[in-house]
Amino acid sequence: MAELRLLTYNVRSLRDDADAVAAVIRACQPDVVAVQEAPRKLRWRSQRAALARKSGLVVATADRPGGLMVMTSLAAKVLSTRVATLPKSRDLHQRAVTVAELELRGSRWAVASVHFSLDADERQRHLAPLWAAVEGVSAPLVVAGDINEEPDKPVWQSLAARLQDAYAVAPDGPADTFRARQPRRRIDAVFADPSVEVVGCHAVQGVASDASPGVTRELLAAASDHLPVLAVLRQGRR
Length: 238
Description:
Blueprint: E1 2-10, H1 18-28, E2 32-36, H2 44-55, E3 58-59, E4 68-72, E5 76-85, E6 96-104, E7 107-115, H3 120-125, H4 127-134, E8 141-146, H5 154-162, E9 164-165, H6 166-169, E10 188-192, E11 197-203, H7 217-223, E12 229-235
Parallel strand pairs: 1-2, 7-8
Antiparallel strand pairs: 1-12, 2-4, 3-4, 5-6, 6-7, 8-10, 9-10, 11-12
Helix pairs in contact: 1-2, 1-7
């Protein structure tokens, strides 16, 4: 059965320590990384390429809007990519969704990186265009990113009604992702197609129980204000 080791990570535009971000990613050994707050200003392409190189990965998507990016290992073959901007409210950031359809070890996946608004009403308005943006993907869908609300809120619950909240299904370590120095909120997540088996999921907190050796709390705090979430997904249930 084919497994996907997926990391989702808000890297805060690499405003902190880009080398620490890359070190965290390398230690987690992902096949695919859904990135939020990827660099999107001066030299954004070269900054993204440098992060991928230092992380031992390659850039799979090359779209600036919304500060989103998908990176993959060399084992993954990118079949197609798409990006869609979401309706923008005045005085708020432009939001988007970026999707990479890929093949990994004989199985196909569609991975979408998302970063929802800080505004609750705008988050709700973005659900319908998000689903429209991923309509027609030809592989099991995984939506990963910074939801900017917690699991008891409406947008999170809408996502979990259509897809599996990976941590809720198979928690194998800590849950909270924000803020990195003292995590007390779970606002970053991986949601997987119902046909996919969730083997495990946790927030990488740099503690012994989070199953991510080589990552320390100090390294995570230096990298970003968010902690990454690592999920292992499998196609073909037993």
